[in-house]
């Protein structure tokens, strides 16, 4: 691993000051992604600012029924938290399907938002990758791309965001709270991650000197009836080929509230707005689910290896909604 | 969970043999005390790391080591410009089987030529592993790139028929299979593909090497201590006697630690250059780049049958890959010589050469992927005939070896299927594909035959009996998880009539009598054969000692009438303990040996063994076989396949340890499940570069993929093998992938002939 | 160099290491505790699993400096007062290993897993994540242990050993 200077920040103010004065510095929380990428030579910070001593480890109920999650809450603790299991079961499920128990004990909520893609060409220094080295090209386009994106892709990059947790957060309209010396910003989940366009190296709207301090979940009654479905090659300990985060409320056979997001299909957790628009007020039938899924995936473009994801996403979306309708919540 | 139960045995079991005795190395392995090759402390130890080529073929035009040299703690950056010459790798010779151990023919750091994408071009030695790795990443290579053939699919058309050798034949014919196929009223003619696989032992290849003048000590997780020692002697120009190889614990191998690969050689080289002990544990990526894996294959299986369900034609051909710098043919069609009674057979293996790292042996090389194709095709033809796949197999079960009419030493495939069908509940299967469901899951049941030839190698063994009743068995064999020390202690205990606890087994060290390699599922049988002979000799010596005294009730007895039990020798009620005999004779111990490790002794032993082995092979066909039963659940929406039940019944002769043998069989099945559903090494056809060189992206099965595996064995001794035992290390993987593919077909009506069976192939 | 202090298997340790040194390297290379294994250095195999304040983590992805002040337990420290841990005994009895290389990680992971289950946590195969009193079925154990690869395929024995210990009265 390339040498770096190590600083431990005792409080948020110190942390954000430090990152402003150290060009190329990185925050480190659980380290599960950053340490791996540093060892691979993909990430090469000159300074690493340890934020694990910051007081951002609480999960608190907000007035009005929402929940505030400190950026340093470990994934395992978040998934096991009573408030999350009862009110946002899809979030618990999403976290529990990710990585392994050991990694979930290390990884933090804030870090999970900033996970980088698992594209093999991104990891391999011998390959061309616009994300790792802007302008170098993309070896994935005509290479191994079975697990690459089908929505929101560009000519520069077809990588996917690997997180499960973020897919649930997208469905829940979570707010990411970030802080810098300039103050605090609240970024809606939908605006936190970026699509690749011509700048796939820019993955979020976070400024280089900003620190994720919390994630807030709004009060959302529909979330109580929710599920997360992850489809993958191995039964466990594997990244999603496709995943679906869904919450559904049905009154008298009509969809009265719905939240949908897809994982494994894009450079960001993909909020399925079009499907939601079609479903809201529609009869809660398999036919509606199919129509919604088809509309959401209509703009998708696949390659020979990953085109199956379009059909897989459609089917998984329909199936997850059907399951919510017939079997109810995962809570 | 169903645990293994042993059916009543017809072979006489001893007090130890056959019992499910706990592994003797259990306490060491469950407390972290067992030391693997990278865990021996050395004062002054240094660490090494490799820089790999990133092109498939060409020449190095420049090496910039300035940045690497500047890393604090770096002691040496060794490249072809400054490395001392190693002697060339030997070519294969039947007279010295250790020549088989050359992983590649490349003279590492002795040439500027690049032969594959990933070849090590520099080795960095530093005070810490971290510094070595960092510096190795900073060695800058520039190349003149040359055209390379790296795409197996593209090179398939250039494949040439494999030539026959003494160890393996490339083809065989009987009758006119093509004509019979054309004339058959029912037939299938199918193409299968299997991808490259990697062993992925959890212990990455690791070596610790220390020179003391011209003497060398090497800790290396090898599957063949003797080959490694002789190979190093040859490459470094020292006498084999000056080299000590220590490898009591090997952290998994599966064939991947059979050959001598770059990491081992370059650690020894680096130790010589720096004059300090060097340790190199390859990175996981380094294992993929420098240690060969299983070849990809394309296979054609064509079968013809009469409407009576009797096979009339069997054609099995294959194309596999070798590297231009090494690797060998894979006996993909091996099982097709033995499994079915067919009058017309055509088998042919073909090879295509790539600019790639050598392929190498991996658990059941040949039969693992060969049974996938053959046993899937058999299932398809049974379907065409409207026959139950077991019934179809039983109608074509041969009495003699189909290809040449030799006798089977032992064959109980019928019994394996009968017992398996009963235990698995095969009768509950409704034949029509897609007809079985459990809730939303599609359920499928499939079967396939397992087959693996049994091998035996020369083994030198000594046995010492001490006056206090303790027994020491010494043999330089290998422990990668088979439980060899436990099994051999059980054998010695019964052979000498002492309690299991009285026997200690030393292994994994070149100072011991030369053991067999761990390969071909032959280690246990090979050591057992010599161990039994040594125990007989030992008892003879003890009897002779006893016979010197008039007081001994054994005086005048012949050894053939004696029984070893209760810590002594007996004939009926008359006899006495070893302790008494040795004490009376004034001896601390008695020792017996089989084989000699002198140069002449070794050569004579090898020749004697080879001639006996060849004669034996001319007379008998010996193999382990079995019936694999699998149930899968397929998600009808997503195509996800999960194995939900398994029964494997194996005909593996006498089982020495009911616990460890069952574990080995299960281990094979687990690897077979991985092969069927998830495992694939991704070689970029543009660059020849492996793109998933890690355990996050190369998917070996995890806990959640593996249901309880019901494993049985028939426990009928093979009369031509020592104690009647046949090896169990590899047969478990054979047939496994086909059983799964057949179950998937039964669940979904979809045939997947290209491994792995991932969900995109079922959508 | 940074100074790190931690308790390892009940012993206070203090050492100066560069900040990029992993907890795995501190254990293996600096403290000589080689029972904790390196399998991938990528958090992809679980061979390096150790317990930090009773929670299982992958030591290969942990910068040692971030674990200052913590209580680390490795395979060398799981036995209590001379008696082997019940899981160590059960692994031998149920043949929960072959080559032994993943075993330390499996045992440490299983200890952490039983504690997590005891605290009421759900898993990806739990039907209702909000449920309490989740039974530790074979499927639950397999899912919860999936972060520990065993290439020898000793999974059945490992699960059996864990089940035995989980079901035996403590």
Strand order of the largest sheet of chain A: 4-5-8-6-7
Second CATH tier, the architecture of the largest domain in chain C: Orthogonal Bundle
Q: What CATH architecture label of one domain in chain A applies? A: 2-Layer Sandwich
Structure summary, number of beta strands of chain A: 12
Structural class of chain C: alpha+beta
* Most extensive interface, chain pair and sizes: B-C, 64 and 63 residues
Tell me what portion of residues of chain C adopts beta-strand conformation.
5-15%
Q: How many beta-strand runs of chain C?
A: 5
> How many whole angstroms does the radius of gyration of chain C measure?
16 Å
For the largest beta-sheet of chain A, the strand count, sense and barrel status come to: 5 strands, antiparallel
Q: Kindly provide the radius of gyration of chain A, computed on alpha-carbon positions and rounded to a whole number of angstroms.
A: 19 Å
Mean pLDDT of chain A: 97
Strand residues, percent of chain A: 15-25%
The best one-word shape of chain C is globular
Topology:
The complex is a heterotrimer of chains A (331), B (763) and C (170).
Chain A: E1 5-8, H1 12-21, E2 25-28, H2 34-39, E3 47-50, E4 59-61, E5 67-70, H3 75-80, H4 82-87, H5 89-97, H6 101-106, H7 109-113, H8 120-123, H9 165-171, E6 175-180, E7 183-188, H10 189-192, E8 211-217, E9 226-231, E10 242-251, E11 254-263, E12 270-271, H11 273-279, H12 286-297, H13 308-327
Helix pairs in contact in A: 5-9, 11-12, 12-13
Chain B: H1 26-31, E1 46-52, E2 58-64, H2 66-69, E3 74-79, E4 113-114, E5 120-126, H3 129-138, E6 140-145, H4 152-155, E7 160-161, E8 171-174, H5 177-183, E9 186-194, E10 206-212, E11 215-220, H6 225-236, E12 243-246, H7 262-274, E13 278-281, H8 284-290, E14 297-305, E15 311-323, E16 344-354, H9 367-385, H10 389-395, E17 407-408, H11 413-424, E18 436-438, E19 441-453, E20 461-466, E21 471-474, H12 484-496, E22 503-506, H13 523-547, E23 563-565, E24 568-571, E25 574-577, H14 578-585, E26 589-594, H15 599-619, E27 620-621, E28 623-634, E29 641-651, H16 658-677, E30 709-713, H17 736-748
Parallel strand pairs in B: 1-13, 11-12, 15-16, 17-27, 21-22, 29-30
Antiparallel strand pairs in B: 1-5, 2-4, 2-6, 3-5, 7-16, 8-16, 9-14, 10-11, 10-13, 14-15, 18-19, 19-28, 20-21, 20-26, 23-24, 24-25, 28-29
Helix pairs in contact in B: 9-17, 12-13, 13-14, 16-17
Chain C: E1 2-8, E2 11-17, H1 23-30, E3 49-52, E4 55-58, E5 71-73, H2 86-93, H3 103-118, H4 138-144, H5 155-167
Parallel strand pairs in C: 1-5
Antiparallel strand pairs in C: 1-2, 3-4, 3-5
Helix pairs in contact in C: 2-5
């Amino acid at each position: 691993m390339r040498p770096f200077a190590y600083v431990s920040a005792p409080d948020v103010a110190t942390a954000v000051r430090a990152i402003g004065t150290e060009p190329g510095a990185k925050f480190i929380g659980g380290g599960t992604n950053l340490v791996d990428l540093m060892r691979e030579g993909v990430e090469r910070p000159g300074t690493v600012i340890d934020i694990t001593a910051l007081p951002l480890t609480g999960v608190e109920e907000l007035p009005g029924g929402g929940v505030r999650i400190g950026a340093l809450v470990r994934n395992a603790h978040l998934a096991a938290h009573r408030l999350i299991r009862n009110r946002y079961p899809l979030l618990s499920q999403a976290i529990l399907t990710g990585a392994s128990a050991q990694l979930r004990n290390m990884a933090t909520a804030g870090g999970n938002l900033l996970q980088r893609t698992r594209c093999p060409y991104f990891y391999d220094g011998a390959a061309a990758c616009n994300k790792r080295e802007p302008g170098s090209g993309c070896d994935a386009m005509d290479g191994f791309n079975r697990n690459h994106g089908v929505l929101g892709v560009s000519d520069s990059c077809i990588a996917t965001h690997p997180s499960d947790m973020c897919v649930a957060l997208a469905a829940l309209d979570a707010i990411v709270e970030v802080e810098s010396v300039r103050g605090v910003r609240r970024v809606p989940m939908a605006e936190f991650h970026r699509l690749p366009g011509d700048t796939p190296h820019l993955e979020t709207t976070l400024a280089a000197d900003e620190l994720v301090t919390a994630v807030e979940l709004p009060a959302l009654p529909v979330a109580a009836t929710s599920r997360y479905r992850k489809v993958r090659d191995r039964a466990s300990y594997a990244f999603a080929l496709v995943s679906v985060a869904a919450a559904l409320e049905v009154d008298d056979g009509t969809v009265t509230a719905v939240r949908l997001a897809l994982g494994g299909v894009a450079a960001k957790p993909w909020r399925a707005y079009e499907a939601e628009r079609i479903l809201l007020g529609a009869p809660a039938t398999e036919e509606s689910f199919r129509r919604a899924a088809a509309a959401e995936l209509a703009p998708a473009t696949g390659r020979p290896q990953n085109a199956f994801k379009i059909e897989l996403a459609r089917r998984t979306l329909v199936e997850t909604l059907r399951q919510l309708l017939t079997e109810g919540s995962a809570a | 969970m169903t645990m293994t139960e042993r059916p009543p045995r017809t072979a006489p079991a001893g007090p130890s043999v056959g019992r499910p005795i706990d592994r003797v190395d259990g306490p060491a392995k469950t407390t972290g005390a067992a030391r693997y090759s990278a865990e021996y402390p050395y004062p002054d130890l240094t660490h090494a790391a490799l820089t790999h080529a990133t092109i498939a073929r060409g020449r190095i035009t420049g090496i910039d080591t300035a940045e690497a040299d500047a890393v604090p703690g770096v002691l040496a950056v060794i490249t072809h410009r400054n490395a001392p010459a190693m002697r060339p790798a030997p070519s294969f010779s039947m007279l010295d089987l250790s020549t088989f151990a050359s992983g590649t023919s490349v003279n590492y750091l002795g040439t500027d030529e690049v032969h594959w994408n990933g070849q090590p071009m520099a080795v960095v030695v530093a005070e810490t592993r971290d510094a070595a790795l960092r510096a190795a990443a900073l060695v800058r290579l520039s190349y003149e790139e040359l055209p390379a053939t790296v795409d197996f699919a593209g090179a398939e058309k250039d494949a040439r028929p494999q030539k026959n050798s003494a160890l393996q034949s490339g083809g065989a014919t009987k009758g006119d299979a093509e004509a019979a196929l054309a004339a058959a009223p029912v037939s299938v003619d199918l193409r299968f593909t299997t991808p490259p696989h990697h062993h992925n032992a959890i212990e990455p290849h690791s070596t610790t090497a220390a020179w003391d003048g011209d003497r060398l000590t090497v800790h290396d997780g090898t599957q063949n201590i003797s080959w490694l020692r002789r190979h190093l002697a040859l490459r470094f120009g020292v006498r084999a006697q000056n080299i000590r190889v220590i490898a009591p614990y090997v952290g998994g191998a599966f064939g991947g630690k059979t050959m001598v690969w770059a990491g081992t050689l370059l650690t020894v080289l680096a130790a010589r250059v720096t004059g300090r002990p060097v340790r190199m544990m390859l990175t996981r990526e380094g294992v993929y780049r420098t240690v060969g894996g299983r070849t990809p294959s394309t296979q054609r299986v064509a079968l013809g049958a009469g409407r009576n369900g009797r096979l009339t034609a069997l054609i099995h051909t294959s194309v596999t890959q070798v590297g231009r710098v090494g690797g060998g043919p894979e006996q993909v069609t091996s099982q097709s010589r033995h499994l079915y009674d067919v009058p017309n057979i055509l088998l042919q293996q073909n090879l295509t050469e790539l600019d790639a790292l050598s392929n190498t042996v991996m658990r059941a090389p040949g039969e693992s992927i060969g049974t996938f194709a053959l046993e899937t095709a058999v299932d398809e033809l049974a379907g065409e005939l409207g026959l139950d796949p077991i019934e179809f197999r039983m109608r074509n079960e041969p009495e003699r070896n189909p290809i040449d009419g030799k006798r089977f030493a032992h064959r109980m495939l019928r019994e394996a299927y009968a017992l398996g069908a009963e235990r698995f509940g095969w009768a509950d299967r409704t034949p029509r594909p897609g007809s079985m469901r459990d809730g939303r899951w599609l359920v499928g049941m499939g079967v396939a035959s397992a087959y693996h030839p049994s091998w035996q190698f020369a083994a030198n063994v000594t046995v010492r009996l001490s006056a206090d009743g303790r027994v020491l068995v010494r043999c330089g064999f290998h422990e990668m998880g088979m439980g060899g020390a436990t099994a051999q202690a059980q054998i010695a205990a019964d052979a000498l009539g002492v309690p299991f606890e009285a026997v200690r087994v030393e292994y994994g060290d070149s100072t011991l009598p030369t053991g067999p390699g761990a390969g071909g599922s032959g280690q246990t049988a090979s050591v057992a054969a010599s161990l039994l002979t040594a125990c007989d000799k030992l008892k003879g010596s003890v009897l002779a000692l006893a016979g010197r005294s008039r007081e001994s009730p054994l005086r005048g007895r012949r050894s053939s009438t004696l029984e070893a039990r209760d810590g002594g020798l007996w004939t009926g009620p008359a006899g006495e303990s070893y302790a008494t005999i040795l004490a009376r004779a004034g001896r601390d111990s008695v020792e017996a040996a089989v084989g000699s490790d002198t140069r002449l002794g070794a050569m004579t032993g090898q020749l004697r063994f080879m001639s006996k082995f060849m004669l034996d092979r001319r007379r008998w066909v010996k193999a382990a076989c079995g019936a694999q039963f699998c149930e899968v659940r397929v998600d009808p929406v997503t195509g996800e396949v999960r194995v939900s039940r398994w029964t494997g019944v194996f005909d593996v002769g006498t089982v020495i340890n009911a616990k460890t043998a069952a574990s080995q069989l299960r281990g094979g099945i687990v690897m077979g499940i991985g092969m069927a559903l998830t495992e694939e090494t991704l070689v970029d056809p543009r660059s020849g570069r492996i793109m998933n060189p890690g355990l996050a992206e190369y998917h070996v099965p995890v806990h959640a993929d593996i249901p309880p595996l019901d494993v049985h064995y028939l426990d009928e001794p093979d009369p031509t093998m020592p104690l009647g035992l046949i090896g169990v290390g590899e047969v478990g993987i054979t047939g496994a992938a086909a059983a799964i593919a057949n179950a998937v077909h039964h669940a979904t009506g979809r045939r997947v002939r290209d491994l792995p069976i991932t969900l995109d192939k079922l959508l | 160099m940074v100074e790190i202090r931690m308790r390892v298997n009940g012993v206070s340790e203090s050492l100066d290491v560069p900040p990029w040194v992993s907890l795995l390297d501190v254990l293996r290379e600096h403290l000589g505790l080689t029972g904790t294994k390196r399998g991938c250095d990528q958090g992809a195999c679980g061979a390096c699993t150790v317990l930090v304040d009773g929670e299982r983590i992958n030591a290969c992805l942990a910068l040692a400096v971030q674990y200052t002040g913590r209580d680390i337990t490795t395979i060398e420290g799981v036995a209590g007062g001379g008696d082997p841990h019940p899981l160590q005994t059960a692994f031998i009895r149920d043949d929960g290993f072959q080559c032994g290389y993943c075993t330390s990680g499996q045992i440490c992971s299983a200890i952490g897993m039983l504690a997590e289950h005891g605290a009421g946590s759900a898993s990806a195969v739990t039907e209702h994540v909000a449920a309490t009193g989740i039974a530790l079925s074979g499927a639950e154990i397999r899912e919860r242990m999936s972060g520990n690869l065993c290439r020898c395929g000793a999974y059945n024995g490992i699960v059996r050993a864990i089940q035995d210990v989980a079901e035996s009265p403590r």
